[in-house]
Write a structure and sequence with these properties.
Helix content is 45%, strand content 16%. The protein contains four helices and seven strands. The C terminus is likely disordered.
């Protein structure tokens, strides 16, 4: 009986080892399958990601045209995209911009000012060329009245020279007289010789009794040697 029991124990141990080995094999196989599944899932995910990237690259629009690619449908569709023009910002016509610098406007204003200046100069030249009749009196203790026609633009020295030429005919003392020896007196004012009649007229120069030059024959205009 002792021998029989020993053989039975050995058999049971062998069976237990075989089951243990089978279980280990099954566990190893299950682990392999699990790892394989994980690799398959990773491969599928990588493939899907790669497909999406390729699809994005294919469907990226160019500067003029846009192409929509549908991988599930082999028919390619081309849809032209019309570029939108950006509106340029311009001046608001309702806003007052007269205070801003404007070369064109400034040039027009300059031309207008030059035109007005030229018209004024021409008008003054016309005034200067107008004739005036001057009644004067040579005073040598008594008055000797004479009349001369001059231009408004003539200087007083020019007027005195004409007076000398006119008085030489009647007064011998004027043969050696020049304008430097003469004074032009108007309302007790000595008139400088370098001024013109125009200077006094345009500035409306006044004396004690009114305008210096209204060229009235009744004025007291005296010339003294």
């Amino acid at each position: 009986m002792a021998e029989y029991k020993g053989a039975a124990k050995e058999g049971a141990r062998a069976m237990a080892l075989m089951k243990k080995r089978e279980k280990m094999k099954a566990d190893i196989e299950a682990a392999k399958n699990k790892i394989s599944e994980k690799h398959k899932i990773a491969d599928i995910s990588n493939k899907e990601s790669k497909k999406k990237k390729q699809k994005k690259q294919k469907t990226k629009p160019s500067s003029a045209l846009s192409f929509n690619v549908d991988e599930e449908d082999d028919n390619d569709s081309l849809e032209p995209v019309i570029p939108v023009k950006k509106k340029k910002l311009g001046k608001n016509p309702d806003v007052d911009t007269s205070f801003l610098p404007d070369r064109e406007r400034e040039e027009i204003e300059r031309q207008e000012r030059e035109k007005i200046r030229q018209e004024w100069v021409e008008e003054q030249e016309k005034i200067k060329s107008e004739d005036i009749e001057i009644t004067y009196s040579y005073w040598d203790g008594s008055g000797h009245r004479r009349t001369l026609t001059m231009k408004k633009g003539n200087k007083i020295s020019h007027f005195l020279q004409k007076c000398v030429e006119q008085l030489r005919k009647d007064f011998t003392e004027f043969r050696a007289v020049t304008t430097e020896h003469l004074m032009y007196v108007k309302e007790d004012l000595i008139i400088p010789q370098h001024y013109t009649f125009y200077d006094f007229i345009i500035n409306k120069a006044r004396g004690k009794s009114g305008p210096l030059f209204s060229f009235d024959v009744h004025e007291d205009v005296r010339m003294m040697v």
